[in-house]
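User: Sequence recovery, please. Input:
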């Protein structure tokens, strides 16, 4: 029983479907809700939905991932007389699902919601783990809570309209999951990526595997206090690189920054953990071929190191803490890395 409650709290039920609207109708036949309301990415017009429920649309970007948009969703719920028997359906990428999840968690102390992720990143990452929230005073995801959807419908047909940049961004997160936890998946992903297209017939199986891995890690550490840190591989430097790109007004998609962060973390892993260098060279090649040469001025290194130091996972350590690898599939969490070593890794990254 306890396990059941635990599961319901932190891990959503994943439904893989090629028709998410039919899947929703099946759910509505099984479970009674007083009302259904939609929050959707403005990329989709209400007319693109076969189901006719009230829809509130959101411009999905980091500027709109704010308390103002949360208030707009609360107003939409309030104006439609939503109660705890209302089902909120969030259709969109991670911005929409994080915002709608937070609004659902807090409206009348919690109403049920389901997510329909429409980007690859949202399918493989944001859809699992129950993290919801929004940006506050320039800090990403500063306010939020853990609150899982009742169900998540993964429908890969959404990927057919997704821009290549967004696909690559999500793909980087899949590579990250695989490199820390499943080397078979890692080489399957690279093979699928280099020889076909990520949205090919096999992509649903690869997405499913990446989600299963994340679910297993989340179940073992739902509050993100230990094991779940392995999913931050590439994110210590990656978040700093993303933040610097925002400061400079040339915003890098999240997965692009994570890809650079993974190369930096692999360099540090070769330096300090004995990681064989072939995997570093493989990721360096993928970065250059698909994501583009990383650009950074030497004068930016100081700012990057400052941003790495301010990572919220660093707590009280003297030096920044990284997730590194002993080998593919064998991560080590909480490794203190000196400033000189970080500089060396950045020099490698930006000399590629
Ligand atoms: N909760 C979590 O665990 C978690 C995990 C990872 C990321 N996130 C959050 O997710 C957000 C990033 O999400 P994202 O990468 O999904 O991007 P996003 O939600 O910002 O969407 C990216 C762009 O893709 C468009 N779009 C969405 N679906 C589309 C489709 N099917 N076809 C064409 N265009 C489409 C959107 O309109 C937007 O312009 C960040 O705010 C991040 O903090 C949350």
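Assistant: Recovered sequence (352 residues):
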């Amino acid at each position: 029983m306890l396990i059941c409650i635990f599961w319901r709290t932190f891990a959503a039920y994943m439904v893989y479907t090629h028709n998410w609207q039919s899947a929703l109708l099946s759910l509505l036949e099984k479970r009674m809700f007083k009302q259904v309301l939609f929050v959707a990415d403005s990329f989709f017009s209400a007319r693109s939905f076969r189901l006719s429920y009230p829809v509130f649309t959101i411009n999905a970007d980091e500027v709109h991932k704010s308390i103002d948009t949360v208030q707009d969703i609360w107003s939409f719920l309030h104006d439609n007389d939503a109660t705890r028997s209302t089902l909120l359906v969030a259709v969109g990428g991670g911005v929409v699902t994080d915002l709608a999840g937070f609004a659902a968690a807090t409206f009348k102390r919690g109403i049920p919601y389901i997510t329909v992720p429409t980007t690859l990143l949202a399918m493989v990452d944001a859809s699992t783990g129950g993290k919801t929230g929004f940006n506050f005073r320039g800090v990403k995801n500063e306010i939020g809570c853990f609150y899982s959807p009742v169900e998540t419908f993964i429908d890969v047909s959404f990927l057919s309209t997704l821009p290549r940049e967004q696909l690559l961004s999500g793909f980087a997160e899949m590579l990250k999951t695989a490199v820390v936890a499943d080397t078979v998946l890692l080489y399957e992903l690279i093979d699928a990526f280099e020889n076909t297209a990520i949205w090919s017939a096999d992509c649903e199986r690869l997405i499913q595997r990446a989600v299963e891995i994340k679910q297993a890690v989340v179940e073992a550490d739902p509050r993100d206090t230990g094991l779940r840190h392995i999913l931050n591989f590439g994110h210590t430097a990656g978040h700093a690189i993303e933040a610097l790109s925002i400061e400079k007004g040339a915003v890098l998609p999240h997965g692009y920054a994570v890809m650079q962060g993974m190369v930096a973390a692999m360099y540090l892993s070769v330096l300090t953990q004995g990681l064989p260098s072939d995997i570093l060279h493989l990721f360096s090649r993928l970065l250059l071929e698909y994501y583009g040469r990383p650009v950074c001025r030497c004068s930016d290194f100081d700012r990057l190191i400052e941003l790495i130091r301010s990572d919220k996972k660093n707590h009280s350590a003297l030096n920044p803490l990284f997730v590194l690898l002993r080998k593919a599939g064998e991560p080590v969490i909480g490794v203190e890395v000196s400033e000189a070593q970080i500089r060396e890794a950045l020099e490698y990254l930006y000399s590629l």
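The domain at 2-162 is CATH 3.40.50.1970 (Rossmann fold).
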